[in-house]
Amino acid sequence: MTPDERRASGSLSLVFAARMLGLFLVLPVFALEAARYPGGDDPVLVGLAMGIYGLTQGLLQIPYGMASDRFGRKRVILLGLLVFAAGSFLAAAADSVFWLIVGRSLQGAGAVSAAVTALLADQTRDEVRTKAMALVGASIGLMFAISLVASPVVARWIGLAGLFALTGVLALACMAVVAWWTPPEPIVHADVPRGRLSDVLRNAPLLRLNLGVFVLHGVQLAMWVALPGLLVQAGLDKDGHWTVYLPAITAAVGVMAATLFPLERRGYLRAVFLASIGLLLVAQLGFALLAAQPSIWPLGLVLFVFFIGFNVLEATQPSLASRLAPAHARGAALGVYNTLQSLGFFAGGAVGGWLAKHVGEAGLFAACAGALFLWLLVAWPMRAPGRSPSPEQVLADEAGAA
Q: Whole-model pTM?
């Protein structure tokens, strides 16, 4: 990587990590802490307060992404982070579940994931972009693991309101990082055509990736409906679940780093991508078999296999989406991509809960395996993309034509 690519990757990974840490710190204790607020005895309202963030995220990813194509990445990111911080401070000041819902919905309205990913894609070459995206994915996974350990401890000190206030402070810090550390975004000529949604929705390879990210995050959330219960059945108290999660995530990141980047350089990206879907499929079948008699070590091993495939796909899918998208519609393409990601979270939680209730844990994991098999069939025709033109190349081509 060049120095500017390292700056871009490091700064934008930090933005993702800090923002997600604030969100992840809240989730493990939200339901318990929200019960202390007026209206907190209604599970429907508490569930709405938890889930409405994903709904507003899903609704606004495409508008934010398209706006970043038109008005510039950094402007849109700074605006989104400001909205996210405002929602965090509103939730911190909430005196009822109703105001928690309002604050969480405003948090979700700061839907900057597409714009941040598009900016990272703008500032990295194709041959190093997967590595840059992997840094983002690894930072998110690490924040998730840290939050599982830290959330109950921090909540005892500062409560749910303090966690939301901390989230707001982290968002403001992210604004400073984007403004002063992230390299300037590429200059795009005013005559370069702007992204249209139709450019994205007619692109078959992008549609395959959008289906993939929907399935990936739907399966991720659905399996977490049942996995904590299996660990408890295996004899591990909920306060000790991090002793399984953290080693599995850390080891899987190491395996990904040692295999993905060398294989991509040798031209095996398609094989790695499809093999990763296969690993997820194997992991779901493994969980289904263990559901009847769960045991700690086998569950940890299967979770390790899951995280290998998950981390590779988290790194490669946004990289592929940015490379397959037309340069002038990169923000719109990543807006659609992140919308499907948010909708996958929503569907995974809703359908996963229904499956756990009606067909049990084994049936839930079997259904996840079926969804992954269908994704594997749809993804099979994929081809690794060639190099896509950068905004500077578009400008140079335009100047040459003139």
A: 0.72
